[in-house]
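job 3f2a | input accepted
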Amino acid sequence: MLSNASGHPQILPMIKTASRCVLGIGAVIMLVGCVTSPARHSTSELLAEPLVPIQASSWIIQGKIKVTLEGDHQNISFNWHRRSSLEDTLRLSGPAGFGGLTIRRYSETVTWVDGATEQPLDELPVSTAFRGFLVEIPITDLAATLLGYEVASTKWASEVVDWQLLSGYRLPRVMAWSLEGASARVVLTQLSFPEPGSG
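job 3f2a | predicted structure (199 res):
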């Protein structure tokens, strides 16, 4: 048997090392055991849950959009802040000209932010598949569909593919939008109601 300089067997350090390994593995197993998947709800259960009130004065919805037009795909992340019944701020980030694009609505006026100034939305200088959704569809209609409401239109179509429960409300999880040959798959990942005055 191997011994160290003091004559004690070196088996003790080996036992300590093995014990640390066992404890580490046990901790990992316990942590993994505590992680649970979000509760799945049946469609009938979800349809019984309330929608966010359309007149809700303030909310934030985050998600992702995959837009397809003539075989070209774009992936966009969005943060939509309904500040009041009169005001929306939509931030888009992603490729093809959507790096940090901010769109604002105040009452009936919708603009995009160009440095320190704001320009009319129909003058948005990007030619991407998602531009049509922004320019052709009223921003209030887009917001209503994110909340799960149907919007009647001959120009475009919106369909909820899958529902989810967020913050106690039934919201789309996955949506499909279509407009003049372009299609968009919209995935909602988060809903929050900020405190009054936050922004």
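job 3f2a | Confidence is low (pLDDT under 50) at residues 1-6, 25-38.
job 3f2a | closed
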